User: Fold this.
Amino acid sequence: MNPAAHVAALRRAGSRIAGGAEGRLDRIVPSCPAWQIADLVWHVGIVHMFWRMVARGALAGPEAWTEPDRPTNDDLLVWFRRGIDLTATILDSVDPDTPAWTWGRRNTVSFIARRVAQETSVHCWDAVKAIGGNEPIEQAVAVDGIDEFLDEVLPGLSHDLAGPVQTICLRAHDDTGEWTVRTGEGSCHLSRSCGQADATVTATASDLLLLLWGRRSPNQVSVDGNMAALQRFLTRADF
Assistant:
């Protein structure tokens, strides 16, 4: 996916969250047990605000960030929808190669467009699940999300890369996507093919991404090999 596709995906997922939240802000979010839908909407909106400020050069990083006051529930969805449009407009207008602060390997606005699209899409799944739906994450978005998770999120955010090595292969049976990730001994290495691994996980791209983000358990996907190695890997991906 390119930055324009990421912006389009964030618009779709953001709109889906807003539509599903109408009249349901007090619903519990099963995949985020401490949240009601109102909390999910607030969280996603704040993520959008932070990253769009970074993208347009108004914020140099988290040290300068001050979270605004939260709107009342009566005003929350109006605020959220405005934020979706503003975030998408800014990301569309800024050159993706513009340097920007990030916590990932790439320090450009293209990283931001991808991160915001992925954050919004996973939380869209949470919101849809909370209102009784059962929709997978869009296939292209999910494939891109697996790649982002293994290449950017895991090495950038995990506090648990030490200890023995596990090598895990992920295979999307509804796509050609394959990934082998080796974690342990303080590092994380990714190859975009399936090689020798302690465990191979096969599922739809959506379910693989949801597994990585803790929304699916290993018994909801096909696992060939050492289950303990997969579970140890997943603890490293538990942020």
Notes: Strands lie at 166-172, 178-184, 187-191, 199-203, 222-225. The chain has two domains: 3-130, 139-236. The first helix runs from residue 3 to 21. The two ends are 25 Å apart (CA to CA).
